[in-house]
Design goal:
The structure is a homodimer. In chain A, the strands form two sheets. A two-stranded antiparallel ribbon of chain A has the order 1-2. Chain A has a two-stranded antiparallel sheet with strand order 3-4. Chain A contains five helices and four strands, in the order ααββαββαα. Chain A is of the alpha+beta class. The C terminus of chain A is likely disordered. Chains A and B meet through α1 and α5 of A and α1 and α5 of B. Chain A binds a DNA duplex (30 and 30 nucleotides) through α3.
Chain lengths: ~130, ~130
DNA sequence: TTCACTAGTTCAGAATTTATGAACTATAAA
DNA sequence: TTTATAGTTCATAAATTCTGAACTAGTGAA
């Protein structure tokens, strides 16, 4: 098992961050890691937003978040602890992570309201 | 030719925006549209950051930006005019677009400095 | 040591998405 | 008309992502 790769702060790119967080599963995982400041391991996410996800897929999602520089993963005994690198990122790209997390929150709130009102948007486009 | 689709403001998603702007070509196109407040047509972008891009690919890039709700495209005679929807977006997701555009600017500035210093980062990972 | 168990990674092929050349549509002007 | 320009759509090639199966690494017990 090759050692986990973490990019140095100056190698982190906007494209990588946006790509990593443009996937709803990864966005949910990342939001969870950011909000819960204690370390999160992978198996906490075997179901993400009511969908169960194979652990190989989950492992890839974590790798993408790690490669993008969003999280730092460390092995502690048998399990992995994941923490966000948001303090570092806030220095390199001020406001970026905060704005994205906030936007996701706004969107979730809107969706919850829509659902409560009985709207039946399918998400398909015309 | 089917009429161009533009999502209504409440159907615009964070995932869509991040995905659209996670591609460097689309990010460059969007930055150009935002900065030049007058309307931009597609053929202004036949080369983006020193790479020439087929017009079918460019057309798809514009469609993705449009579907994501980032731009509005209107036919004026034989050509298309593209304008950013950043005012609307700033209302729905305050600070998001601004933070992304700023982050891209910071990154470009860093890359320019790196190049001047003669660094030879390949962008490949170990 | 060896066995079993847990947590996660890696691999390889399937499924999905993206890129692009060729053909097409729409508008304008000669 | 015909020609030209600007861009879209289609079909398929190329690249990416998902996932089951096999593997690696650490822990604890016999």
């Amino acid at each position: 098992m090759r050692p986990l790769f973490h990019p140095s702060i100056e190698d982190i790119t906007v494209e990588g961050i946006l790509h990593a967080l443009s996937d709803p599963v990864r966005a949910a995982i990342y939001a969870d890691i950011v909000s819960q400041e204690f370390a999160q391991n992978c198996s906490n996410f075997l179901t993400v937003s009511n969908k169960s996800i194979p652990k190989s897929t989950l492992s890839q999602h974590f790798r993408i978040l790690r490669d993008a520089g969003l999280i730092r993963s460390e092995r502690h005994g048998v399990e992995m602890h994941n923490v966000s690198r948001c303090a570092e990122l806030a220095k390199r790209f001020p406001g970026l992570i905060h704005a994205i997390v906030t936007a996701h929150t706004i969107q979730s709130a809107g969706e919850a309201r829509g659902k409560k009102a009985g709207a039946k948007k399918s998400g398909k486009r015309a």
